Description:
Layout: E1 7-14, H1 36-43, E2 46-48, E3 51-52, H2 58-67, H3 71-74, H4 90-96, E4 100-105, E5 120-123, H5 146-151, E6 154-155, H6 164-182, E7 188-197, E8 202-203, H7 205-211, H8 230-239, H9 246-276, E9 283-289, H10 308-311, E10 312-313, E11 315-318, H11 320-324, E12 330-332, E13 336-337, H12 341-349, H13 363-368, E14 377-381, E15 392-397, E16 400-405, E17 411-414, H14 434-447, H15 450-466, E18 478-480, E19 486-488, E20 498-500, H16 503-507, H17 513-516
Parallel strand pairs: 1-7, 1-9, 2-12, 3-13, 4-5, 4-7, 6-8
Antiparallel strand pairs: 2-11, 3-10, 9-11, 14-15, 15-16, 16-17, 18-19, 19-20
Helix pairs in contact: 6-9, 7-9
Amino acid sequence: MQRCQPNVLVVLTDQHSFRYVGCRDSDQGGQSIETPTLDQLARTSIRFETAYCPVPLCTPSRYALLSGREAKRAGAWSNDSVLDPELTTIPNTLSNIGYKTYLEGKMHFGGQVQFGGFDQRTYGDLTGQSAHQAEPPRPYGHPPDYRRLLAEVGETGIPESLLQETRTVEESISTLREHRHADSEQPWFLCASFSRPHWPRTAPSRFVDKHWPDNVPEPTVSGGDTDDHPLVTACAERTASSDLSHAEMMRARSGYFGAVEYIDEIIGDFLLRLDDSGFLKNTIIIYTSDHGELAGEHGLWEKRTWHEAATRVPLFVQLPSHRENGGMPERLHTPVSLLDLYPTLCGLLGVEQPNGLDGRDLSDAVRTGTEPDSEPVVVDCFGMFGNDDLHYRMVRDGRYKYVQFRDAPELLFDLETDPLETNNLAADAEADVTDTLHRLRETVNESLHFADIDRRREQDEQMASEYRLATPKGGPNQYHMSDGRVIDGDTLLYQPHVITDDPTAAYHDYPKQESKSSRSGND
């Protein structure tokens, strides 16, 4: 491969809703927040204003993003899902054409496969609620108290030098320095994955004090005619949203605002250091998040629902030519999906994309700043607190958003006239939407059968029993070394505890062929 191939940097955050970027105007759903780093990146990038996550839940969305496949085909059901080692991912494809691929930080992999196709990973997942994230503290092994996670937010009790975001930056820069020393001509692909603004919604005091108590905007929308929908009720109970006082809710919002502004500063420092060291020369930069955050909208927190705040995310794609020419400040409004990133990268790099990807190639839109053709965008969620009736598929098609559940009332919103999703047209006898409802029902029925989900999930549960995690959940932070060793990150530097030094046993002891015969591959 010739060195003219660009490097690729993906900056991934967790739970960053599209509303919380300073450059998004209020008439486009933006909140009053200061994110100078992301604003500057947006000004010199192609900015997809209507980008949706594949799944509004951490692990499934990340599997779908990395594999370019819808949740049902990626085996992405819940945060306990196991990554199928046979699933082709973005780093697999780039490694095959000569890239060195690196992952630093959080990725939420389940099972033995902790690399996900990446060549090297020196700073691994935060297992359970430990290792630079657990605030407020809770008894070891107990499930999280969601009310405390909402009500007890504010200043982090962890020194900034030890926060997950700081460690991810340091490990990323060290990795690229080592890469340049080993082979300065080899292109690299780095995914730097940060934990915030995901709960516990804490940040250094300078960010928290800025917002609390006098500078916290109210939620964009308090409710609507779907407040009694079974999924809304289930999510409210799960996150204890209804138990919060107004003051506690606003305190939680201040924590989220502070976490967003903190991660913006971290990303700014990261990009500045990369630029000063020459690492951004001839580098594609992509910024996005795995899903959004309700942050009190509709009286809810976290994600999982169909609402825009939970399913829409920032998506900026910057080519080297954009930086060199002062940027191409184009805002593209056609709905797109994070599933499109895999084929789009293939298009930008001139690589034939693997068969079976569900996304589409947006490379022409990135190069020229022109709107892509409008196509339906799909969002799924099959991890619903054990209640299969609430499994759903959402379709964004033009101005309409349609949501079909396994066994719960369907929803239809006209986002052009009702951007806050307060009027369910599917339940409005006076709404003239019969043809639209029929068309969108058919779109879902032709592409998804909930019975198929049950069969595929059973196959993946069998796979999960075969690909057990190398260390138990809630265990120590792990450094996953390129030679396969797994080191306890909380042990002494000069006397590290090696959890395993046999890469075959730890990560490649996959079932023999006959044990895979019950599975149907990636489909």
